[in-house]
Design goal:
Elements lengths: L6 H17 L2 H10 L5 H11 L17 H13 L6 H15 L1 H12 L5 E4 L15 E5 L2 E12 L6 E8 L2 E8 L7 E7 L5 E13 L3 E2 L6 H36 L1 E2 L2 E2 L4 H26 L5 H30 L9 H12 L6 H12 L2
Parallel strand pairs: 1-4
Antiparallel strand pairs: 2-3, 3-7, 4-5, 5-8, 6-7, 9-10
Length: 374
């Protein structure tokens, strides 16, 4: 199986890497996360206008450049390496995929503006009682004349505080459905409780109290949203796995460099064999993660069972590796590893959060076991 990326994909990776190295400053992004709006809109617009990465995986008729899962992998890994907090996975991967599969004039209109960097779209699917299982939807949607009325709540909707539009899952009389909410025109029926996550992202818990939406807010076929949601979750999981690979590559490189500079007992600590062995173990975890991500990426367009099995294998592998690499990097840096001033602490927080996004490590281990038990 050939894992070599094409010349076009190499140019995409190199261009994005150069942009991030010269224009994406870690200190500035943390400042925006902690005291500002939670992101840098100028960076997001540059992603769309100068680099075209927001619509890289979208067809040309939706304002994209006709890429696919490999382009998403290349982009997500580069963003992870630079610890970008702007909502690429949430908007350009998960939400964009849902809008594209839903089709229709409303979805395509929002999708075109999304690809142009003019809108931020976030999915609100998790609920307090659902845990990792998106199937458990307590939020309801009932038709009322030419409108839909939504009641319920959502938790940890990442990027929701930044979003111009929300995609909300709800149970209608016909079954699981997906609704588009224009935040600016939602009215008093929508309440957001926003907060900053441990990895400096922005998220929100949503309360829907008699939220009235026009009939056009229903995306796709009423009661038939689950297959698209399931695919979106697998696509999101694969993208954050690729992002984690980028994070781990940076963490490993920084740890190796630090081991050359830090002296103990008259020599660099990197000269001690036990620490060399530890860093080799970290390297092996990273390489296994790379292979697992490739497997998931190459199976995203396969049948549902094959796709789910490959994605869960990747997410479980990444979950273990992210914890091992992150914890050992902090340990080898000593007390400095968890300070705000050192990049390693910020990467460790992101690697911790990745373990729980789009299904926890335990969830994907169990799903993989179930899918392979027969």
């Amino acid at each position: 199986m050939d894992f070599t990326i094409s010349n076009e994909q190499t140019l995409l990776r190199d261009g994005l890497t150069k942009f991030l190295a010269t224009r994406y400053d870690l200190a500035s992004s943390r400042e925006a996360a902690k005291t500002g709006t939670g992101w840098q809109p100028d960076i997001w617009h540059a992603f769309a206008d100068e680099l075209g990465i927001i619509g890289a995986a979208l067809p040309e008729e939706a304002g994209g450049i006709g890429g696919g899962p490999v382009e998403v992998m290349v982009i997500a890994e580069a963003l992870g390496h630079a610890l970008v907090i702007e909502p690429y996975v949430e908007t350009a991967v998960v939400a964009a995929g849902l809008l594209l599969r839903a089709g229709g004039s409303t979805a395509m209109s929002v999708l075109e503006r999304l690809a142009a960097g003019e809108t931020i779209v976030a999915l609100a699917a998790a609920e307090a009682e659902s845990g990792d299982d998106w199937h458990q939807i307590a939020t309801t949607a009932r038709p009322d004349g030419d409108e839909w009325v939504l009641d319920g709540g959502k938790i940890v909707a990442v990027a929701a505080p930044l979003a111009t539009h929300l995609l909300v899952t709800a149970i209608s009389p016909a079954g699981p459905s997906l609704f588009l909410v224009d935040v600016a025109h939602a009215g008093p029926g929508l309440e957001l409780h926003s907060y900053r996550t441990i990895d400096d992202r922005r998220a929100a818990d949503l309360t829907l109290s008699g939220l009235r939406l026009p009939s056009t807010a229903l995306l796709g076929e009423d009661g038939k949203a689950w297959p698209s949601l399931e695919q979106a979750r697998d696509e999101g999981a694969t993208a954050v796995c690729a992002e984690a690979v980028g994070c781990m590559r940076r963490v490993l490189a920084d740890t190796i460099e630090y081991s050359k500079q830090r002296h103990q007992f008259g020599q660099p600590i990197g000269g001690f064999q036990v620490l060399q062995h530890r860093m080799v173990d970290m390297y092996m975890e990273v390489e296994q993660s790379v292979a697992a991500v490739y497997l998931a990426v190459l199976n995203l367009e396969a049948d549902t069972t094959t796709r789910a099995r490959a994605v869960s294998a990747a997410k479980a592998t990444i979950g273990r590796a992210a914890r091992f690499v992150g914890e050992n990097a902090v340990q080898l840096h000593g007390g400095m590893g968890m300070t705000e001033e050192l990049a390693i602490g910020h990467y460790f927080k992101r690697l911790t959060a990745v373990q729980y996004e789009f299904g926890s490590t335990d969830y994907h281990v169990a799903r993989y076991a179930e899918l392979t038990s027969g």
